[in-house]
Model the fold of this input.
Amino acid sequence: MFKIVRKEELAEDIKLMEIDAPLIAKKAKPGQFIIFRSHDKGERIPLTIADFDRKRGTITIVFQEVGKTTEELGTFDEGDSILDFVGPLGKPSDHDRKEEGKVICIAGGVGTAVIFTELRNIKEHGNYTITIQGSRCKSLLFWTDRMKHFSDEYIITTDDGSLGIKGFVSQPLEDILKKQAESIAYILAIGPVPMMAACVKVAKNYNVKAYVSLNTIMVDGTGMCGSCRITVGDKSMFACVDGPEFDGWYVDWKELAQRNNRYLPAEKQSLERYRELVKGKNR
Ligand SMILES: Cc1cc2nc3c(=O)[nH]c(=O)nc-3n(C[C@H](O)[C@H](O)[C@H](O)COP(=O)(O)OP(=O)(O)OC[C@H]3O[C@@H](n4cnc5c(N)ncnc54)[C@H](O)[C@@H]3O)c2cc1C
Ligand code: FES
Done:
């Protein structure tokens, strides 16, 4: 069992949990993830290692309540325990190895939690970092101070204009690349699939390398079930073991979007059933 030692509400429907998991904390690297199952009837889902503390022996996860399993996890409190918590899974990102110059990190929505350890690593390895952090509205933004702390330049966007530049993250990206594409080593974009696809398209137009972290549907997380299969260039790959980070220029975005939507009716039904069950218990 893995104990929740801290719980925090970061933004609307976005929660942080620090989990006691010393063996995972010892090995965790930026870009990796865990798969958890909160109880024996629960579904397994992947979440990024949003931070790790080797001394305390803890792993931080940040999740957005979008469906049955994340909504149920949100009801767990400090002191409660999660049944299974497996990791670190996936390949660590490459960005901890070198100084490459100017890097643009783009975070969309809960992608902020996914990109954070990578941004920190990129900055700590001597790179100049330009961060663009975007969300639908002001109330969904979190960790702005942390992101700013590791950024030489920092830009906020919101779709509704409630904070920062009004519109999508891809606009300031285009503005920057228009002026100085030759000086950018690469971009790293993490967030919803359409956002990553849009950023990659802009970067490709300016001939700038674009890395992304793919949030496919995963089951085992060890390369055996095939659920997370994607096409990159002319190769079939598994996001869980070959990624989750890939060269965005070569990802088949259309196929990824289609495969991510393949259980939509079942996911909707599962959430409705769960909410009915909770309502029944509270009556
Ligand atoms: C490697 C990896 C790391 C991830 N890290 C994080 C993280 O740090 N924080 C976080 O909040 N989420 C993260 N995700 C996504 C997270 O796993 C899903 O949101 C979760 O599985 C949803 O489960 P659910 O039962 O609550 O909702 P479901 O019932 O499975 O889904 C509800 C709705 O949410 C959307 N959705 C579901 N799965 C995904 C997905 N994989 N990507 C995009 N939209 C989806 C769909 O619209 C779906 O209908 C990550 C995914 C991967 C593959
Ligand atoms: S999650 Fe099963 S192969 Fe990747």
Observations:
- The longest helix spans residues 264-282.
- DSSP finds nine helices and 17 strands in the chain.
- The CA atoms of residues 102 and 128 lie 5 Å apart.
